[in-house]
Amino acid sequence: MGIAVFASGNGSNFEVLVNHSRQNKWIYPISLLVCDRPGAGVLKRAERLNIPVLSESPKQYPDKGAYEKRILEHLKAHQIKRIVLAGYMRLIGPTLLEAYPDQIINIHPSLLPAFPGKNAIEKAFVHPVCVSGVTVHLVDQGMDTGPILAQVPVEIERGDTLEIFEQKIHQAEHRLYPETVQKWIAGEIGLRRVEMKHHEEGK
Ligand code: GRF
């Protein structure tokens, strides 16, 4: 069962996922990297790790639908069953959402629903909060709004600079994402929100 990772930037989460899976007999085989930014750091990592890449800018296409159709062709050719977003700076559109219903997850560097969208680490840091964290969630049409699968808190301690806090967030991501992807693939993760909805309906 093939997985595609979508990334736009540095790619540290992509590399951690590939290494984790590889060290565990490809427990979730990552067979494709999709990257929307030519020159992104993640492309070098994919080359070094020997993972096939689809790297095309959406600017080459008339609209999001056409771009996603092109991606979809590649996903089908690689027999991709699930998609893992890791720093992919683009909303997923209807073409991919309909082709992969509840089969796309994302990692976000805050405790959602707090601080959705871009620059979540900085936003948490400049707010008077003591705890932020990391969230893994299913992807829907919104911006970081899908049902939550896993979360871990990360404290903002006295004396933390933004750089230190960022490092702590990334370390938490690198622990949480591989473990969550593994459980998700194995069907071991419950959707708390769905369970809560059923609970409320049963009242
Ligand atoms: C991570 O902080 C992730 O939560 C966010 O984008 C960042 C990607 O980092 N969605 P990297 O490219 O994996 O190093």
UniProtKB/TrEMBL annotation:
Pfam families: Formyl_trans_N
Catalytic reaction(s) noted: N(1)-(5-phospho-beta-D-ribosyl)glycinamide + (6R)-10-formyltetrahydrofolate = N(2)-formyl-N(1)-(5-phospho-beta-D-ribosyl)glycinamide + (6S)-5,6,7,8-tetrahydrofolate + H(+)
Keywords attached to this entry: Purine biosynthesis, Transferase
Binding site for (6R)-10-formyltetrahydrofolate: 64, 89-92, 106
Annotated site, Raises pKa of active site His, chain positions: 144
Pathway: Purine metabolism; IMP biosynthesis via de novo pathway; N(2)-formyl-N(1)-(5-phospho-D-ribosyl)glycinamide from N(1)-(5-phospho-D-ribosyl)glycinamide (10-formyl THF route): step 1/1
InterPro entries: Formyl_transf_N, Formyl_transf_N_sf, GART
GO molecular function: phosphoribosylglycinamide formyltransferase activity
Keyword Acetylation part of the UniProt annotation: no
Assigned EC number: 2.1.2.2
Swiss-Prot/TrEMBL GO biological process terms: 'de novo' IMP biosynthetic process
Protein task: Catalyzes the transfer of a formyl group from 10-formyltetrahydrofolate to 5-phospho-ribosyl-glycinamide (GAR), producing 5-phospho-ribosyl-N-formylglycinamide (FGAR) and tetrahydrofolate.
HAMAP family, per the entry: PurN (MF_01930)
Family according to the record: Belongs to the GART family.
Name this protein carries in UniProt: Phosphoribosylglycinamide formyltransferase
UniProt gene name: purN
